[in-house]
């Protein structure tokens, strides 16, 4: 896990939580940003609390309910 900036970490910060939710390693799963179309692994996401965003455009792409 590394800091992306003063307010965010990379997606590895939520790796343990995702294993609890999905029962398997999810940081290598890929997704496509609905805003810019960038394809990246969960580990590459910028994770903010309470949301995460694409590493290339900062559009929020994963949020809790
Ligand atoms: Zn994007």
What does this molecule look like?
- There is one protein chain.
- With 65 residues, the chain is α+β, with helices and mostly antiparallel strands.
- It has one domain (3-62).
- Helix content is 12%, strand content 29%.
- The protein has 1 helix and 7 strands.
- The chain has one helix spanning 15-22, and strands spanning 3-5, 8-10, 30-32, 39-41, 46-47, 52-53, 60-62.
- The strands form 2 sheets. The chain has a 5-stranded antiparallel sheet with strand order 1-2-5-6-7, with no helix packed on it. Strands 3-4 form a two-stranded antiparallel ribbon.
- A hairpin with a 6-residue loop joins strand 6 (52-53) and strand 7 (60-62).
- The longest helix is centred in the first third of the chain and has 8 residues, at 15-22.
- The protein is globular and about 30 Å long.
- The model has no long low-confidence stretch (mean pLDDT 80).
- Bound molecules: zinc ion.
- Zinc ion (ZN) is lined by residues 33, 35-36, 38, 54, 56-57, 59.
């Amino acid at each position: 896990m590394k800091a992306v900036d003063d307010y965010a970490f990379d997606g590895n910060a939520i790796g343990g939580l995702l294993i609890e939710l999905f029962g398997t390693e999810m940081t290598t799963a890929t997704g496509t940003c609905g805003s810019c179309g960038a394809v990246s692994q969960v580990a590459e996401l910028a994770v903010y609390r309470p949301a995460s965003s694409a590493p290339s455009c900062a559009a929020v792409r994963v949020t809790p309910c």
